[in-house]
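re: ur question from yesterday

yeah so i grabbed the chain u mentioned. its 279 aa long if i counted rite. heres the sequnce exactly as i have it in my notes:
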Amino acid sequence: MLTKKIMSAYFASSLLLGMGFAVWRMALMFRYYDPYNNEYSTDAKTSLQVFGYVLCFSLLAMATSYFFLRKHTFSEFSASSNQLSVFSSALLGFVFVAIGFLVLLYYAKELFSADTTPFFKGMRIVSFVLLFLSAIYFILSAAASRISLKAKKSCSFFPTLFALSLLIVSYINPAYNYTDPNHNLCNISICALLLFFLYETRSTVTGNSTPIRFVFSLVALICLLAYILPICILMAFWELSTGIDVLFEAVECGALFYIVAVLYSMIHAVKPKTITAKS
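ran it thru and got these structure tokens back, copy pasting raw so excuse formatting
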């Protein structure tokens, strides 16, 4: 089926582009970024601008997939439709829970008694609570039984609310530097994750996927790979500092596997266009 081949090509392209941006960004950070002052040198300005333009163009290119899919429909959505979806959903649920416990273990004092604005502190606590609530949805989604369908629909809003609260926390963070390309890319990746979770919620509630969900999955895959993969690698093998904000953002690591599973499932769930005979 030609449509499946086109979707597979977009999927492979987004994966390769995301990996390419991750390697490119690691090279830029390793060469120009000062991990002690958390800023790039002035020599990086042109390189960072080129990186941003190419990233923007790539996201727009992924959006063109909608024009090939706009007349297609998909089989009924189920996060437990195949083994890859079941595994990735359970993994993401575990990641949410694990991050919640790590925040309690290492940053409980900063979370509950930090000397900051009440709204920022409150939103960060909301994000913390939504970690566990979101985990419930993905664990239920990994269940093969349909008994918990109503519960899954009710819980499907939690990941979207988590991404929204995380985005708010990122923007109102007193330490946020609006000229830092790393912070800007962080917000872009959270926005992409928010849109992905939004259409995840829609698909769970309605039982159907749409072409726009495929588009946002491609966009999210590129953005998350470009942001979180270099952060994780450079924290492990370089001198990037960790913190509670980076720990919250680590949810994106688990989300990557789930996005891949969603794209794979949608490729196999697309239906051929129906041709109506003229009377």
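noticed a couple things. The chain has eleven helices and two strands. also The first helix runs from residue 2 to 32.
anyway ttyl
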